[in-house]
Design goal:
CATH class: Alpha Beta
Shape: globular
Number of helices: 9
Oligomer: single chain
Order of helices and strands: HHEEEEHHEHHHHH
Length: 192
Amino acid sequence: MSKSILVNFICKALGKGIGYACCKDLVCRDIFLMLPKDLNISLGIMGDGEYLHLRKTESGFCFGAGAEEDLKITFKSRKSARLVLLGGISVAESFARHDILLEGNINTAVLLVRIIDRVEYYLFPRLITRKFLPRMQKEFASLKMYGFVLFGNLGKVKIEGNKKAKSAKSRLKKQKSSEKPEKTDENLQNVV
């Protein structure tokens, strides 16, 4: 079978969108920093082969296959790929329906799905995403993402630790310290 032109275009757009979102969106950047170093990702359709190869470097994502894929995501059919890639259903729902095969670390896949969800939130209008994504705070306009996806060069996008951006660990630590302590039996006895 020949490769689908539509799926090929969408996969390339998704790859560029992942790189751009990891550079401009703080949530995606935090998730990017949690991904393993030198991660090789492959996205394809069973019977058609791979459509997208992404490699994580220290400064961002780039197109191209690495030595061996650490995470290989394969759709079982073109129909299931189109459903996910055109916003019919979420990636998580596709996993639940067993439309996707995964080879690699499940924790890494979950982190990648979070980034993909954010990218889909930027790329698709709210009319489509309201079916499968909760409301999210956008950190930049979707038009910037569209412009980059159509005309940008993924090789020129560099992801650096920004002084303004807090790492995910420091955010979690601050959130935990601000929470009130739970009422336990020992605390209640001391009060009485």
